[in-house]
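Section: Multi-chain targets

For targets with more than one molecule, the full set of components is provided together so that the structure can be written out for the assembly as a whole rather than chain by chain. Components appear in the order listed by the source. The example entry contains two components.
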Amino acid sequence: MAPKKSKKSKKEESMIDFVEEEVTGDVDEDDFEEAQEQEIELTDEKLQELLEKYEASKSAATKTKDDFKHLPKSQRGKALKKALRKDKRSRQEERSKIREELGESAPQKEVPKTIESMREYDATMVDEQDDEVEHDEANDEFAPYFNRETSPKVMITMTPKAKITTFKFCFELQKCIPNSEMFTRKNVLLKTIIEQAKEREFTDLLVVHEDRKKPNGIIFCHLPEGPTAYFKINSLTFTQDLKKFGESTAHFPEVILNNFNTRLGHNIARMLACLFPHDPKFTGRRVVTFHNQRDYIFFRHHRYEFKKEGTKAALLELGPRFTLRLKWLQKGTFDAKWGEFEWVLKRHEMETSRRRFFL
Amino acid sequence: MDCYVGATTGALKGALLKDNTFENLNEIKSLDPKSDEITSMIWNDDQQTEILIARMNRDLQLFDIEQGEQVSILTVSAGTGPVKGLHKSDEKIVTCVESGEIQVWNDKSEVISEWKCGPGAAVMRGSNEKPEIVTGGMKNLLKTWNLETGQQIWSSRNVPPDMLGLEIPIMVTDARFIPGQHTILEANKHHEMRLYDPRAQRRPVKRIPFMENPIMCTSLTYRTNQILAANSIGEMGLFDLRSKIHPMCKFKGQSGSIRGIDGHPTQPLAASVGIDRFLRVHDLQSRKLIHKIYCKTRLNRVLLRDELSILNEKKSGAKKEIDEDETDYGNMTEDGYRPADSEDDDVIEEDDVWGSMDKVKKGGKKTDDVEILEEVKGTRKRRESVKEEVMEEEAPKKKILKKKKKN
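Its structure, encoded as tokens over all components, is:
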């Protein structure tokens, strides 16, 4: 729902701008004066009244649960909800009418209070013109990729004795990530796999974990120096289960990384970017999206198509959908027992506020 | 500046706790983390005006706090790997590198003596009381060395094999002398700390487990018997070396591995840094996080100054608190731990109690009870029992009467 809303509001804003431009462009000097006079009249008499009305409409009386006493108990809740929705709609309409009357001097539209917009202050939010962070990032483990010294080569493997859904998931991943190879685990230790992968010059290792025959976690290990991250997989939908889906192509995809704003988020975004080759083939019109919302990273894979001379785009989903949640980030290659952790999600210690996010 | 922090990028940062800000003390853009990473950092003198810094490329630098200047003094020549430990005693600098070569330098940057402590060294620390150093590391048992002769004084022995008869690997991460107690504390990756007494035996006299992740570093605090330890997922605990309950408390707030802690020698404060890029200062008495500074890069080492900007307002209050605590502790004095009174003293005091009890019987009221309290300064248990009697007011008199009759 959230993205839809934002789109709507944006549209409205742009419409308003458009109208304003028209008005200011066409008005002659005399007309302009008249208009000004009209406006003055508005400010003198009506404006205050309208503004008051506007404020009053916000706090207009609504239906309460006492109004539905005549209904049987099982229907009261539903009826109340319906009535409240109706009230809200009517208040909105009233306000929009007043806005039209007020014209330019209308009060600013209120931004909806969501959990994200009321997010707690985070000191690690990355400023774009920060020399120190820039220096740090220029020297971290992903720097060779961003300096175009290495090109990604990805190894995908899974838990020993993986079941069919996990294999299916790995195949889907292989389809999304170009230049990736899939291997069955065959009871080899992860640390030996890492050594072998380093020898064969792989740059990333993905290990899919499963529980109750379904993939539930994924380890991202950047080679040769780390770091390693563990993600929980949520709400996985395979391509075949989508309502409408397309067939993926071999073109290099574009990668969209949304909302990774903190220092930790930056690191994770850089890590995810390292999975995909440098120059996307724009002819393929393939997009892979990692969208971070409230610390959950949504993975989507689309093909886009421009319509009406590039003003609109249509999307065709290509394949799988899943959500990732970061559990820990470890320095160096995989070593869960002796390794050093850069960040660990401590559930009861850290999750004391709903409005605190880490990515 | 209250706190000096060494980062993995090679930046040296000075943090001002009063304002919750930090400042870089050297040029960042010219740094190369592969050669400039700060691996060790100690105070060069007791007045805390100079810092001795060891870099990844084994350069030793002297940082003057007042002038803000950095001077290279020497480059460690022997062995391979980064400098794992620094120690300064009587104008001599002791360095230890990862491959185990220990070198003693004089003030003209010349090697006086050199010896090996075995490969895989992870820590080398000196003692303030005697000319000794302690070393340890991966597959490298804890050993103490005489600084003047370079001879090994004592070496520890590994703990007995586990229940399956398998040898327990040696993974020392931190070691230090406990001042005034002749003991050595070791932290290792088996999430436990071991306390050695070289006078008694080669195996640890005490093993203190802590959570489930490798312990990365330890620190002394303002009390001789209390130490701080932190592990690789950012759990920090306060321990009392005498008690059986471990830990005394856990400190909250860290989210990543802690690389360095520094406790204040006289105040209940401790600063900790780690690769989660934060400098945190905790109050050891209230156990609360009092300062949290985001330093932008992964941090390796921290040094806390004795004179802090936050202390001036706080001083009087903090001191009182300590006094209260001291009386509560009973055996804890300013000089350190005072052993419990011997049994003979107890007997004498018991007599005193019975002597003073007569007064109560004669009709003395509260004031007499207070006198009794003052006279009885024995062990904690006894004091408490007397307190209880005082609390009950009426009841104790009857009890005393009964006891008298028995006598």
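The CA atoms of residues 132 and 258 of chain B lie 27 Å apart.
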